[in-house]
């Protein structure tokens, strides 16, 4: 199956060309395909903050390349460039602090640097580390896709309707996608007859990105307003809700795009299974539970305009970007290290001791 999945990889949103990082600007999709060149850490941090690149794994990968660009500049400037690079780590870490993969990728780059310090080949070693972070996310996507398909097959042998939220596809990762990777692989295997994609107000990642990715591969997708989810679960024979994650805590709680929590509550009520798909880089064992997450809120004005046209009254908008789905509403978490059914702290700790499956 791995080769079939690789052959199906079409969209790419992160392109490292050696001299600069090129990002497919997700703000103008699907209407325009513009690539933005980032030549330094400042450019990468701005691209992350402004959602040119989004989705936790993609953010982590972009930040790793940002460190490479920063290291080149610092080394060329001379002096104690390793110490000076700390400012760039901070800049990148602050660009979108909610994504666990961002912290994870920056820690990996910093650990690598600590081991080599200012050695002659430090820049090459850092570049190789960033490329390896990118490649390992791509591999993790393939493993998770296969594990997710097995779960869908195990619970009901025929083609099914599934519901997803936000965008967790090629645009949000280094490869095939997390939740959307499972859906794409299940479709290739004849296990999906219909995908329902929530539009994901206010940035519309569902309408603009998920619908675009699925439609371009001929996967049957229907777009729904986020508030239609309970009705769809009740009337459309949905067997799985499949979503990604921005942070998974040590007890299996999941922070993801706003709206995910209400999907899990509705899924429980309607007997629909709830699957979270995320690489182990998204798991932060230092956070005991979702209570410990500082959830991102953005400016309320994002709710008052659609496409530059005012649609809201002149009031303050409350704009939480993420919510926390408690572990006891989750049937299964799929990672590249394996799956965790009915997650809890003990099972999550066991998972983190395992090696990657492939
Ligand atoms: O605000 P976004 O668009 O970055 O939110 C993205 C999500 O919530 C995704 O579900 C999550 O990052 C997983 S992406 C594979």
TrEMBL record:
It catalyses: 5-deoxy-alpha-D-ribose 1-phosphate = 5-deoxy-D-ribulose 1-phosphate; 5-(methylsulfanyl)-alpha-D-ribose 1-phosphate = 5-(methylsulfanyl)-D-ribulose 1-phosphate. GO terms for biological process: L-methionine salvage from methylthioadenosine. SUPFAM superfamilies: NagB/RpiA/CoA transferase-like (SSF100950). Its EC number is 5.3.1.23. InterPro entries: IF-2B-related, IF-M1Pi, IF_2B-like_C, Initiation_fac_2B_a/b/d, M1Pi_N, NagB/RpiA_transferase-like. Pathway: Amino-acid biosynthesis; L-methionine biosynthesis via salvage pathway; L-methionine from S-methyl-5-thio-alpha-D-ribose 1-phosphate: step 1/6. The record marks 166 as: Transition state stabilizer. Catalyzes the interconversion of methylthioribose-1-phosphate (MTR-1-P) into methylthioribulose-1-phosphate (MTRu-1-P). Also catalyzes the interconversion of 5-deoxyribose 1-phosphate and 5-deoxyribulose 1-phosphate. Part of a bifunctional DHAP-shunt salvage pathway for SAM by-products. Belongs to the EIF-2B alpha/beta/delta subunits family. MtnA subfamily. This is Methylthioribose-1-phosphate isomerase. It comes from Pseudomonas taetrolens. The lineage of its organism: Bacteria, Pseudomonadati, Pseudomonadota, Gammaproteobacteria, Pseudomonadales.
